[in-house]
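Pinned message: reference record for Thioredoxin domain-containing protein
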Amino acid sequence: MGADCALVIFYYKWCPFSAKFAKHFNALARVYPQFHVLAIDAYGMNSVNMRYGLVGIPSVLFFHNGKVVGKVNDSEPTIDGFVSYITQMTGVSPVGSTNLTDSDLLGPLSSTPEPKFDYLLLFSWVFALVCFFYLFAKSNVFKTTIETVRNNWREAEAQHEHND
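Predicted structure (tokens):
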């Protein structure tokens, strides 16, 4: 395999797992200058995600002559893991040191996730809580608790009237 090989990461700017991948992926361009190393922000690109069968983000695809020949979706990425995978796939050894450098932390992919408010997550939590409280309000435990509180309240009022 030669210069027609590419490593492509599909990531989200706000994803903490993508940020964790970033420093290791940034190092690949330095370690494998003979390969094209690309990054695609796949957020909102459902057709691309479906085309390449991306279930989890971040995912790294290895292309040869425009065709996907390998895929990496590791929860604990390391530069050594990438190097081992690439060497196994291609037989090409890394050029230079595989140790992470300060420049690998700087970019081009950011090692810190971009802050983003997730409205869908908020809606999901609100929906779940509303369902929980609705079902709890219909439960015997809730009805028994309310009846106990009412009885105690009535007894307290009756006791208060007696004292006056």
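Pinned by admin. Summary line: The longest helix spans residues 140-163.
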